[in-house]
Specification:
about 150 residues, alpha+beta, Lipocalin, eight-stranded antiparallel beta barrel, 1 helix
């Protein structure tokens, strides 16, 4: 038996353990996976008018809560071409597929003059959530991080 073959046989239990560990940690995502609150930022531009949103730079910061059952709510402050709206709240729905990609929609803007933003998202399982608004005429990126209780 060659040294190379002996080495492979000697290492095979270690390789099997590493593969089994990777498989054990690779659990599929679902709506239940996305559960809890996230701090987030949205940055980008409005290209063409859409409801109350006017063309120009756009940014938002807020807290978004996913209920683990497909419903989402948020409170945020936003700036649309320099026009600031504080403590704006919104609700929506979401879905997360087994590969940890999905989508959600959320209302934005002042009550009675709001619009629905649609996003494609990816959840990395380590508390990071990223998204891209898919509405036509809007270039906005979403970046969220799971909020953890403070440790003192």
């Amino acid at each position: 038996m060659s040294n190379r073959l002996r080495f492979l046989f000697a290492q095979s239990p270690l390789i099997l353990v590493l593969c089994a560990t990777a498989v054990a940690h690779a659990q599929p995502c679902s709506d239940r996976t996305l559960n809890g609150s996230f701090g987030y930022t949205v940055t980008g531009s409005i290209i063409s008018p859409l409801g109350p949103l006017v063309p120009g730079p756009f940014a938002a910061v807020g807290r978004i809560v996913f209920d683990g059952e497909g419903k989402v709510s948020t409170v945020r402050s936003l700036s649309d071409d320099g026009e600031v709206l504080q403590n704006d709240s919104g609700t929506g729905t979401y879905t997360l597929k087994s590969d940890c990609t999905g989508s959600f929609n959320i209302t934005v803007g002042p009550p009675g003059n709001d619009i629905v933003l649609n996003l494609n998202i990816v959840f990395d399982g380590n508390g990071e959530l990223r998204g891209l608004v898919t509405n036509s005429g809007i270039v906005l990126a979403f970046d969220g991080r799971r909020q953890e209780p403070p440790s003192y």
